[in-house]
Design a protein that fits this description.
The protein is built from 6 helices and 10 strands. By secondary structure, it is of the alpha/beta class. The protein has 2 domains: 187 residues, Spore Coat Polysaccharide Biosynthesis Protein SpsA, Chain A (Alpha-Beta Complex); 35 residues, no CATH class. β7 and β8 form a beta hairpin.
C-alpha cells in the first residue's frame, strides 16, 4: 500500500514458450527464473499481494513455493501465443475483486527480467503516484537512434522520423535521447486498465533503467549473459 492505495503485483507466466521451452522456471544460478521476480515483488515496500497468473501446473507449484499466490489457473483462451497482456491482467483483477479485495494500482512484472529489484519497483510506484498519470512503464535508452531508421518502399528509403529535419547530417551525440520499453515494470491505475483496456495509458510516466539491468531472458544466450552478471554480484 502506498498512502491509501492498495497495490497488487501480477506476474503473467504462461507455460508455452516457443523460443526457450520452460523458460519461466528455467534454472538461473540455482533458482528458477520466476523466483527473482517473485522475490523482488515480495520485498517491495508497497505491494500488498503478489499474484502469478499461469496456465501451467509446474509454474504454479514453483511460484507458490517461492511465496507468490496462485489463486486460479489461467483459462486457455488467455494463454495463447496471440494473447495480449491487458486481458490477462484484467482477468486476474476481476478474480481478486469478486472475492472482496479492492485494488487501486496493478504492478505488472514479466518473469523474464531477473535483474529488476524491489528498489526499481518501489521507485516506479512512487513516480506514478507523484505524476498523476494513468500508468507508468520502465524504459531503457535505445541502442540505435530511431532518427536514422528508414522504411523502404520500391527500393527507396523513407525516414521513419519525418519532421523536416535531416537527421542523417547530424552526429549521434547531436540527436535527442530516445527510450524504449524494457518490459520489466508496468504500473497501472485500476481505472486505466478497465476504461482504456490497456496497461499503458495515453498519459504514461516512465522509470528509466540502464540497459544492463534491463536485460531479459528470451534465448539461451540471454540466459548465459545474465548468469555471468549474477555470478559477479
Amino acid at each position: 500500500m502506498i498512502g491509501k492505495l492498495k497495490v497488487v503485483a501480477v506476474i503473467p507466466a504462461r507455460g508455452g514458450s516457443k523460443g526457450l521451452p520452460g523458460k519461466n522456471i528455467i534454472d538461473l544460478c540455482g533458482r528458477p527464473l520466476i523466483a527473482y521476480t517473485i522475490e523482488a515483488a515480495l520485498k517491495s515496500a508497497y505491494t500488498d499481494r503478489v499474484i502469478v497468473t499461469t496456465d501451467n501446473e509446474e509454474i504454479a507449484k514453483v511460484s507458490e513455493e517461492h511465496g507468490a499466490e496462485v489463486p486460479f489457473m489461467r483459462p486457455k483462451h488467455l494463454a495463447q501465443d496471440s494473447t495480449h497482456t491487458p486481458p490477462v491482467i484484467e482477468h486476474a483483477v476481476n478474480f481478486i475483486e469478486k472475492r472482496g479485495y479492492g485494488i487501486d494500482l496493478i504492478v505488472t512484472l514479466q518473469p523474464t527480467s531477473p535483474l529488476r529489484t524491489k528498489d526499481h519497483i518501489d521507485k516506479a510506484i512512487e513516480i506514478l503516484k507523484r505524476s498523476g498519470c494513468g500508468s507508468l512503464m520502465s524504459v531503457m535508452e535505445t541502442a540505435y537512434p530511431p532518427y536514422w531508421v528508414v522504411h523502404v518502399k520500391k527500393n527507396r528509403a523513407f525516414p521513419l522520423v519525418n519532421d523536416g529535419t535531416d537527421y542523417f547530417r547530424k552526429e549521434s551525440q547531436q540527436l535527442p535521447k530516445t527510450y524504449q520499453p524494457n518490459g520489466a515494470i508496468y504500473v497501472t491505475k485500476r481505472e486505466t486498465l478497465f476504461n482504456e483496456k490497456a496497461i499503458i495509458s495515453k498519459d504514461c510516466g516512465v522509470l528509466v533503467m540502464n540497459r544492463k539491468i534491463s536485460m531479459d531472458v528470451d534465448t539461451i544466450e540471454d540466459l548465459e549473459k545474465i548468469k555471468s552478471l549474477i555470478s559477479k554480484r
